[in-house]
Please model this.
Amino acid sequence: MRRPVRVGPEPCRLSAAASVRGAAHQRSGMPNQDAFGLFPAPGLGDGLLVALADGHGSAKSFRSETGSRLAVQAAQAVLGALLEPGCERPEPSALRDMAEARFPREIVREWRRLVDEDLAARPIDDGEWERLCSREGASARRTVEENPYHAYGATLLAALLLGNLHLYLQIGDGDIVAVGADGAAWRPVPGDARLLANATTSLARKDAWRDFRRAHALPPSLPALLLLATDGYANSFAEDAGFLQVASDIHAMVARGKWAEVATGLEGWLTDASSQGSGDDVTAAVVAQAGPWPRRSRRPALWLHFRCKCPTNRV
Model:
């Protein structure tokens, strides 16, 4: 079953998000292991937090569907506190320092607290251990027994928009793409050379807070549009340029006053990406200014250039 699309206008801001179960997961009976959240509810407040999480597909992360949901909750608890009514927001320089020194530690700590609560309520049962051992052997069980957070392993993308400051945080794979008023798309968050093939950093790793990458944007460099997506989206394209073009094409649609088509079409685009491309779960969120921007005449190519690839996130 597809998860509901979240859509809503904010003052000078438009936002939408959707998540679809991967085509390969449907064939194998696996659940959608992605999760997302828009906070506060779209249409409320002058700030916005977007959080996306992707549960690992490896055998030892057999509760990653829960782990990704808890990752979004952890981001909301830590970063969403700055959106509470009456909260005194730090100056940009102080907020950047918090992103460097505080937020990653607090997100990991909160995620682990939530995982501990879930483990206390639902201890790993014999059936889960048996399935793990049958797939990867007794050594995999020892790995999870030594670090039960592996069972819940997930990545996290977060964008905190506070007035004229954007703050981006990321651990693991996935993409945060910014688009300027001219339609040019780029990734503001630094890359990580360790993210090769199906490997990824994870909230489950020891000292996971050290693996967070971060970036910020201030005027006049604030993007006109943001696209956040789990790795199943970019992995559906034959070339990276084709994926980045998606963000530029969405920007062009919004600039032509077609936000409603973006919001209602997003889920279908993600479904096409998974079925024609990666086969993985695909989750994406779009945040855009309400315009205006220069018109562009090129026809959007949101569903083009897919390739077949069925990755799993491994740690």
About this structure: The CA atoms of residues 171 and 212 lie 5 Å apart. DSSP finds nine helices and eleven strands in the chain. The radius of gyration is 19 Å.
